[in-house]
Design goal:
Blueprint lengths: L13 H18 L1 E5 H18 L4 H11 L2 H11 L11 E9 L6 E7 L2
Antiparallel strand pairs: 1-3, 2-3
Amino acid sequence: MRHGKRKYSIGSSPSHRKSLLRNLAVEVIEHGKIKTTHTKCQAVQPFVEKLITAAKVDSVANRRFVFRKLNNKSATNHLFDAVAPRFKERNGGYTRILKLADTRVGDGSKMSYIALVD
């Protein structure tokens, strides 16, 4: 049975989906807000939120966990030093998705912003 196994179809293979989520998460952490398709926003939101939750407790194990997920040293340091302390008192809900009225010109895909909550 494959109940509850659905993944967002944002890549042609699992390795492409993994690298795409990794790159989108790095961009959200470094820039605070990115514009991409709505499906990609929905796919990256739980990924980023779990990383922020782990980064709220600054330990060697959590730094290694986050670095293993992001594979980017500067993004990991920025997450622990600048992003996670902002959410110390918040219990989840670190990101929001804002739908845009405009669609992408080439293929008409629905576009959205994913942004860190202030």
